[in-house]
Design goal:
The complex is a heterodimer of chains A (about 290) and B (about 325). By secondary structure, chain A is mainly α. Chain A has eleven helices and two strands; from the N terminus they run H-H-H-H-E-E-H-H-H-H-H-H-H. In chain A, strands 1-2 form a two-stranded antiparallel ribbon. In chain A, helix 1 packs antiparallel against helix 8 and helix 2 crosses helix 8. The two termini of chain A are about 35 Å apart. In chain B, a hairpin with a 2-residue loop joins strand 1 and strand 2. In chain B, helix 2 packs parallel to helix 6 and helix 3 packs parallel to helix 5. Chain B is globular, with a radius of gyration of 20 Å. The two termini of chain B are about 15 Å apart. The chains are: A mainly alpha (about 290), B mainly alpha (about 325). At the A-B interface, helix 3, helix 4, helix 9 and helix 11 of A face helix 4, helix 5, helix 10 and helix 12 of B.
Chain lengths: ~290, ~325
């Protein structure tokens, strides 16, 4: 039982970090970023390149992932999303763009990094063993703690910094924020860059444990969508709650339902459908986004 | 105006039934039949997605219904020995029935929420197909017999596909006929009272409910019709490929259905048809670029979106505006 909870917390911290980036982008620009999973994979590959091929320390790789992805996110917002949002008749047109970017990133990853599964050697060795009740490798604990730390930093940033306040104002009411002198174009770009950076950071963290491969992008996006649906789209607390809930459900499901075959996700999806029928806006979302 | 439309329709018929076979014969690229058959069937599915767009919902779940339709038809053909031609409408009806059950709760959702739930629905369909015993798990169902003869009052209307000299051509004709019927139905729906009501839903659901439109009924109806199209498209696909697997229709296919609609233009009934042709045929032609195929394809898609954010058919808007 303790083992299941520990696994769930570890998974939940990763998931929450992925969902945070997605929900930030959604709340600022009303864009469902289909390419989020691909950005995550890209971040993983950047860390891999820096650590394994250039032989630099892991922390450098992590920073490289964050910087590369932040620049990429800013560029995508400025040159692709902003013009399309300005000119299209329906908000949903951005979905085609996002899906196009997802395909494009897939292609870039394929050409730049190949289709093989890549991983980074363990950063710390050894296994934590508490009386055979919780067994967890130290590197997993380290990654989990780092993820939680990042979440705390992110919340602090959103709550207390000037940029964070501006972005929260934008998410609440674009028009009002604009009238108060918030530069919408600039903060949309920063927000997108921040969201992409978070995706890259998770990629960089997880490449040490599970590795990354080309095919992971799409499923990761679907999982991230699940999380923000559970918690409510566009709400930061919701994304964190959704991430931890999904992590916990996955951990419990894999243990309890393993006797019935690979049906954990089927059960999670079915539960979600029922849950959304009762509460369409998720746990903490505003009605109708 | 009406004569012009009829002329356009006649030209379209001429193009698909006479010109395309002639061109294919001249170039000797008979593999294009298969590509064009896929285009026709995918555009049937996309027509359904377009109808849900028409009531203001983003539907990324068409792959689920295509998969369900494919399995229903396959299981009926292989295990109950039902004629394929009978299973085609049955698959559609089964999908419509499921979509009513699923749609009743989830159609209350809007915008991105609905989009995400339908996306998840595709995953649910795939996982269900993996878990159920009747679908044979990951191994799928293979060597499905080709569609047999279809006769009415002793007159053979469609010959058995096994006896045809060129089954590819037969499938092409069948798929195109299905596509034409689908789009005629869709066009009729849009230009009927039902279509007007759907448009009112797209613009403002509360407002249309306030003047007495039964919005709950309408959106379930539109969703059921949409899923019907998805079901028959999937059934045909399974029959042409003579096999079906849980991975026959995945999230990427659902997303593609949506993209076809976007690219063609959401304001036009024939938008999804054009979008499917451009994207799917374009993808096929780009296979000469080998490893750069996906890069070029997605690059063009992004560029198209930057230049024409309202779909390819929005070019027509501008012309009408100037005139």
């Amino acid at each position: 039982m303790e083992q299941i909870i520990a696994n769930g917390l570890y998974l939940g911290a990763q998931y929450a970090l992925i969902a945070l980036g997605l929900t930030l982008i959604f709340s600022l620009m009303n864009v469902l970023n289909f390419a989020h999973g691909q950005m995550y994979v890209f971040g993983g590959f950047v860390t891999y390149t820096v650590v394994v091929q250039l032989g630099l320390p892991f922390i450098v790789g992590l920073f490289a992932s964050a910087i590369v992805l932040a620049i990429m996110g800013a560029a995508i917002e400025k040159f692709l999303f902003a013009p399309v949002i300005r000119r299209s008749k329906r908000d949903e047109s951005t979905m085609l763009l996002a899906a196009g970017i997802a395909f494009f990133l897939d292609a870039v990853i394929l050409l730049a990094f190949g289709e093989k599964q890549r991983g980074v050697p363990k950063i710390v060795n050894g296994v934590f063993n508490w009386d055979m009740r919780i067994i967890m490798p130290y590197d997993r604990i380290l990654i989990g703690v780092l993820a939680i730390l990042l979440i705390v930093v992110f919340i602090g940033f959103m709550n207390y910094s000037r940029t964070g306040r501006a972005m929260r104002a934008l998410a609440q009411d674009k028009m009002a924020a604009q009238l108060m002198g918030v530069n919408v174009a600039r903060y949309s770009m920063i927000g997108f860059a921040l969201g992409a950076m978070l995706a890259g950071l998770v990629g960089g963290l997880l490449v040490t444990i599970t590795g990354v491969n080309l095919g992971m992008g799409g499923p990761t996006s679907v999982k991230a969508f699940l999380m923000i649906m559970i918690g409510g789209a566009g709400v930061i607390s919701g994304a964190i709650a959704g991430g931890f809930i999904l992590g916990m459900m996955e951990s419990v499901g894999l243990t309890v339902l393993s006797a019935y075959g690979d049906i954990t996700y089927l059960v999670i999806f079915a539960t979600l459908m029922v849950f959304l029928a009762v509460r369409p806006q998720g746990l903490m979302g505003k009605p109708w986004g | 105006m009406n004569a012009k439309k009829l002329l356009g329709f006649a030209a379209f018929l001429l193009a698909v039934f006479v010109l395309v076979p002639l061109i294919i014969k001249a170039t000797g690229r008979s593999d294009f039949y298969y590509t064009l058959t896929s285009v026709a069937l995918l555009s049937v599915g996309a027509a359904g997605v377009w109808l849900t767009f028409y009531i203001g919902r983003i539907n990324i779940g068409q792959g689920a219904y295509a998969l369900v339709g494919g399995y229903v038809s396959t299981i009926l053909v292989t295990q109950a020995g039902v004629s394929f031609w009978l299973t085609l409408p049955l698959a559609g009806l089964f999908c419509a029935l499921i979509s009513v059950l699923i749609g009743l709760p989830i159609l209350r959702l809007r915008g991105v929420y609905f989009a995400m739930v339908t996306l998840v629905l595709t995953e649910v369909a795939r996982l269900t197909a993996l878990a159920l015993p009747i679908t044979n798990g990951a191994k799928g169902i293979t060597s499905i017999p080709l569609p047999g003869e279809f006769s009415l009052f002793g007159i053979t209307i469609i010959p058995a596909f096994g006896s045809l000299a060129n089954p590819r051509f037969g499938f092409y004709i069948m798929a195109v006929v299905l596509m034409i019927i689908t789009y005629l139905v869709l066009w009729r729906i849009v230009n009927s009272r039902l279509g007007h009501l759907c448009r009112s839903l797209q613009q403002n659901e509360e407002l249309s409910a306030s003047i007495g439109v039964n919005t709950a009924y309408l959106r379930v109806l539109a969703y059921a019709i949409s899923s019907f199209f998805g079901g028959i498209a999937g059934a045909m696909f399974a029959s042409i490929a003579q096999s079906i697997y849980p991975s026959s229709f995945v999230v990427a296919d659902s997303v593609n259905f949506m993209l076809y609609c976007f690219l063609g233009g959401l304001g036009y009934v024939f938008g999804p048809m054009l979008g499917t042709l451009l994207l799917y045929f374009g993808w096929d032609l780009l296979s000469i670029a080998r490893e750069y195929q996906l890069l070029i394809y997605s690059g063009i898609m992004i560029l198209l979106m930057l230049v024409l954010p309202n779909g390819v058919l929005s070019l027509l808007d501008k012309k009408e505006g100037r005139a």
